[in-house]
Design goal:
globular, 11 helices, mainly alpha
Length: about 190
């Protein structure tokens, strides 16, 4: 899963929110420079990523996507989970998605333990400015996000070209997404 999913499974504190995204931008910091809460959420992010990449529940989707998306399949699956979460947010959280997103943006900006990696700083800026978390529910925004990720990949990929097709494939997996996401709550 991507940013929305990691923040769904995060506590609502600056250290937890930033710790839950940090692995996408930098290595694990020296434990003496951050809180235990940061480290717990850093480790949770890595656990969730490994689970997402290996769960049999999502294997049919990975198999369907792999012929067209090849090496980028895990990235697209992560984004599709966030798309599913945004579309079906009330199934997973009692707070309205827009309110949840705004609260998370504000809290993330209060993180002070370390200087954010430059790429993370830019990502958080654009995430808040364009409200990525709420925008994930719209297929066009998801395809735009895939396009942005494509620009950072150092090999030819087809994420943007096959984005709408991938969303259609994921629509067949609603029950698998639901079961997978619910299993993480345990």
């Amino acid at each position: 899963m991507n940013f929305l999913g990691h923040w769904l499974f995060s506590d609502a504190t600056p250290d937890a929110l930033i710790g839950s995204l940090w692995p996408d931008f930098a290595r694990r910091p020296d434990p003496n420079t951050v809180s235990e809460e940061f480290l717990v959420h850093f480790d949770r992010h890595q656990y969730i990523d490994k689970l997402t990449d290996t769960t049999p529940l999502l294997e049919p989707l990975r198999v369907a996507l792999r012929p067209k998306l090849r090496k980028t399949t895990p990235i697209v699956v992560d984004m599709l989970i966030d798309h599913h979460l945004a579309k079906h947010w009330s199934d997973y959280h009692s707070e309205n998605l827009d309110e949840f997103a705004q609260k998370c943006y504000i809290l993330a900006n209060q993180f002070e333990a370390l200087t954010l990696p430059e790429r993370m700083k830019k990502t958080l800026y654009f995430m808040q400015r364009d409200d990525w978390l709420a925008a994930y529910k719209e297929p066009g925004h998801l395809v735009s996000a895939l396009s942005g990720m494509s620009k950072r990949i150092r090999f030819d990929d087809s994420m943007e070209a096959w984005g709408h097709w991938a969303i259609e494939q994921s629509d067949f997996q609603k029950s698998s997404f639901y079961t997978f996401i619910r299993s993480i709550f345990i």
